[in-house]
Input
Amino acid sequence: DCLLSRGLGDVYKRQVSDDPEGFRFYTNEELGQIALRYYRANSPEGYVPGCIDVQNNDDGYAVVQLYDVVDDHTATSAWYMLNRVTLTGSDVMTGSAVIMSDYAEEGTAEG
Output
C-alpha cells in the first residue's frame, strides 16, 4: 500500500499574497500530483508509478519520490527536488533541471 507522506509540509497551505503577482506554496499532496503529471507526460509509454512519497527540506524544497512496491521492496521511477513556490528543481536520478510549472493544474500539459 502506498501512502502520501505527510509531515512538516502540511504547514505549507495554499497561500496567495496580496501582491497581484502573487505567490504560492504547494502542499505535499499537490507536489506529488504535479510530479506525477510531469513524469507521465515525459514517459515514452505514459507510465504512471503507483506510489508517491514527499519529504521536506528546511530550505523551501521538497523531495518527491515516485515508485512502485514490487514484492517486498520499492522500485523507484523518479526522484525530484522541487522548489515549493517556483516548481523548479532537478531530477535527482539524472541531474537534469526540471520545470514543472506547466503541470500545476490538473488537465494541463497532458495531465
